[in-house]
Design a protein that fits this description.
Layout lengths: L1 H11 L2 H9 L9 H17 L3 H21 L5 H22 L5 H9 L5 H22 L14 H14 L9 E3 L5 E5 L2 E6 L6 H20 L15 H15 L3 H14 L8 H7 L14 H20 L7 H12 L16 H4 L7 H20 L3 H6 L4 H10 L9 H9 L6 H10 L16
Parallel strand pairs: 1-3
Antiparallel strand pairs: 2-3
Helix pairs in contact: 1-4, 4-5, 5-6, 7-13, 8-9, 9-10, 10-16, 11-12, 13-14, 13-16, 16-20
Bound molecules: zinc ion.
Length: 460
Amino acid sequence: MARLSELAHARRTSPRLVELLAQCRPLEDGEDVRGSAVRRMRRRVERAARVPGSLVAETKAHFARTYAAWAEARPKDDFATMRPLLERTLELSKRLADAYGFEDHPLDALIEESDEGMRVATLTPLFSELAAALAPLVEELAAREAVELPKHRVPVERQLAFARELANELGYDTQRGRVDLTHHPFMIRLSPDDVRVTTRVREDDVTEVLYSTVHEVGHALYELGIDRGLEGTALFEGASSGVHESQSRFLENVVGRSRAFARFLAPKLAALAPELDDLDPEVLFRSVNRVERSFIRTDADEVTYNLHVLVRFALERALFDGTVAVRDLPDAWDEQMQARVGVRPPRLAQGVLQDVHWFGGPIGGAFQGYALGNLLAAQLGEVLTMERPLLAEEIASGQFDGVRAFLGERVHRHGARYTPRELVVHATGTPLSVAPLVRYLRAKHGLADAPHGRAAGADA
Ligand code: ZN
């Protein structure tokens, strides 16, 4: 891995490439797509060139070693083995940040790699506002009585067939992709006509395969929807981590956890298992929207999910600022969880060791995109709901063309033509903010409208 990444880095920053980009410089003054393509390419090459090849190889080797150790340490709740590795990760992350350069906070340098234009100074107030808005919602909704699906059991193969059929109905072209099984679902683009997704199955819980698939299909539709005219340029990719995640979360939550989608889904689940026969869509809707103070980010509901992200963002800042040392990280994690989510994990595997990110890459830059994606998904949902008054009826009857056309036009086809900030305004008319997500969650859970509230999501 170290050698390959060093070789790739050498190509990415070759003097010949830098020279050719310099010749293209005049194009950057233009407003056309060529200007955007050259700007993005030069930005990428210049940033990469700031990092010495030796540091690229050193970090890659360390991350590979750390990942292997983590895979064994996690099930054993073994932080002692991970501690020296993580201390080195922090040191290497700081060296990477120094190499990229930053004006204000070193984390900015790593955030810039995945969410261009975002800074600690802008994310901190945005996330504080988000935390303050979510806390009373969690308080109220976690106290509600839990609704659960009837116990059921469906063989893996049947669930996988269901996942493929569902992906197709959502508009995923299986001539240009595949749905397969993995432990940790992901989407990968191997070429413009080969964009694959993987999913995960639990025999006793069909919602696992359901939401894993819908989420990854959301990512895949983005990649498959980029204008082919951008192929071969630096613009033929998603705009940022946050924007990419907005597309998966939009499909998973704004569409997939709506009342309308529950109506579409209920007969399908009934056909899947006799125990789910005659499933009341309202029961389905409530069971997949149950709000719970839980330990694991990836299993968290829509309301608490962002709080899990904020735990990580706060700890990344603390590690960089030196207010928390790696040796104190497990305790700091538990304190953050207690303060923000309201629970204390009983095991390290359900606490500080749960996510791969810090154990397979740098500390910093990997988590903020999840929260940004959730905010943007709700903001897009609000616009779509206003533009398509019959959206809920369309979804309930399994017609997703309108949703796809909207996302395709506002987001997908542009690839990385616009910066994330520009794209948000282009797609929704306003900069990213907390209010649409809060309105959406309140409307979904039947809470009284906040002042100036507009209902959002396909829940009409
Ligand atoms: Zn995702």
